[in-house]
Amino acid sequence: MPKMPGPSASSDQAIPRSPGTPPDSPTRVPIGERVGQRRRELGWTQAELGLRAGGLSQAAISLIESGSKVPSYESLEAIAAALGYTVELLELEPPGGTPGGAT
Questions:
Q1: Is residue 38 part of a domain?
Q2: Range of the domain at 37
Q3: Which end of the chain has fewer beta carbons closer than 10 Å to its terminal beta carbon, N or C?
Q4: How many independent structural domains does the chain possess?
Q5: Is 43 left (phi over 0), alpha (psi -120 to 50) or beta?
């Protein structure tokens, strides 16, 4: 029986988008993923981010980053502000960059 080709592990593959989405439009990424990415860019620990976000615990930040917990809107606002973003910018990731063009 012939082997069927499997999915390529190439990193050059495009991220799937909804039909009709222009290739240069921002994509939504999991909030926790963006929080963790930005926190690491800033060189902060989860505990440090929690303190800067109004006293959230390290455990709460860990659960948010892992996607196990959905933060309240108030907590999300505090986290976004601590990271230098608005909630809206935290939810969007422009192609090839960080939200809002931040570096």
A1: yes
A2: 27-88
A3: N
A4: 1
A5: left
